[in-house]
Amino acid sequence: MTISRERVLQELAEIAVPGGGNLVSQDLVRALSVESGLVRFVIEAGDAATARALAPVEAEAQRRLSALPGVEKVQIVTTAPAAPRGAPPQVVARSGGASDPPSLKIGRHPTPQAGPAPVGGVARIVAIGSGKGGVGKSTLTSNLAVALARQGRRVGLLDADIYGPSQPRMLGLTGQRPTSDGQMIEPLHAHGVTVMSLGLMMKEGEAVVWRGPMLMGALQQMLNQVKWGELDVLLVDLPPGTGDVQLSLCQKAQVTGAIIVSTPQDVALIDARRAIDMFDKLKTPVLGLVENMSTYVCPNCGHEAHLFGHGGVAAEAQMLGLPFLGEIPLSLDVRLAGDEGAPIASGDGPVAQSFARLAARLIADGLA
Ligand SMILES: Nc1ncnc2c1ncn2[C@@H]1O[C@H](COP(=O)(O)OP(=O)(O)OP(=O)(O)O)[C@@H](O)[C@H]1O
């Protein structure tokens, strides 16, 4: 027997909270997820003191839900935003190790919206996806952004990879925080690119409990409450796979299309096919495929090797009738540059040229 979401909410509505009402009537439950006996949610308090006062409520919810038939495990996290609700706008230092997220309350319920909407000032939104993790999607996004900026395009990069936000590190923004006046977020800037990362708005460890509506609300805020300015293209670095973020983005924003990154191995390609299917279902055009970690050129002897095979992505693109947009070689320098926060595309070597070619192709195709 499995438990339903409605039954969980019914139980939570029985639990009184200090000050009157119950967990549900006071709208304290966020990101409720009920999946095969595992119940997870966040109790979101207005401030830290209220969160502490809610400890017995959390314990009672834990006890009551655990006792319900069909519930195997209950995970509850009680959180409070950085600033109390209704507090005057608070500006967080732009840099210098500020560790708290900006004061804008993020992860609210989504605002009703008729359908996918454009983002003011942003001409195109291009999602960068992959079926499988670790194929170099974030590396490609940061380098492509830099390559496009070097070719005179006005580029934004939204890091929506909530489970492993890596753009701040790859772009040399570690330790910096965006600022907020409580209404709008001032994004960061690096290598000619306007940058915002969902990860920078969250407290550590928060992403794991985020689900459906909460993610959708947060993504909506990233699109509409960030001062992106006038952009030719906004690149969105998606988490790997086919989940809530992909769904939310395509439902809420008018996405021009998606680029799928894959390595040439069969397993990566199978996952890439799944990602393509998902975008098809969401009616988001797939703009083409890119092969990453294609060829390895030995820095000592110049010998070319194909560690993960070669040409698999081009063949797959042809089979699916999709454009093959380009290939990026496997090179230790790509990783080192990413780790140092100076994307390789900001230099002049052969890999930078691969990214420049990819950027030029997108511009020529009217996609950036
Ligand atoms: N062309 C390349 N040559 C060498 N190393 C690369 C290349 N592309 C990516 N990498 C390295 O591979 C690792 C994974 O890359 P990256 O984080 O971009 O992948 P991802 O697909 O975004 O992963 P995740 O699933 O974590 O989102 C990183 O250490 C990165 O530096």
Automatic annotation (TrEMBL):
Segments passing through the bilayer: none
GO MF terms held by the record: 4 iron, 4 sulfur cluster binding; ATP binding; ATP hydrolysis activity; ATP-dependent FeS chaperone activity; metal ion binding
Positions of the MIP18 family-like domain: 5-75
InterPro entries from the UniProt entry: FSCA_dom_sf, MIP18-like, Mrp-like_CS, Mrp/NBP35_ATP-bd, NUBPL-like, P-loop_NTPase, YlxH/NBP35
Example GO biological process: iron-sulfur cluster assembly
Chain positions covered by the region annotation Disordered: 83-118
Keywords assigned by UniProt, alphabetized: ATP-binding, Hydrolase, Iron, Iron-sulfur, Metal-binding, Nucleotide-binding
Family: In the N-terminal section; belongs to the MIP18 family. Belongs to the Mrp/NBP35 ATP-binding proteins family.
Known role: Binds and transfers iron-sulfur (Fe-S) clusters to target apoproteins. Can hydrolyze ATP.
Assembly and binders: Homodimer.
Name this protein carries in UniProt: Iron-sulfur cluster carrier protein
Organism: Paracoccus kondratievae
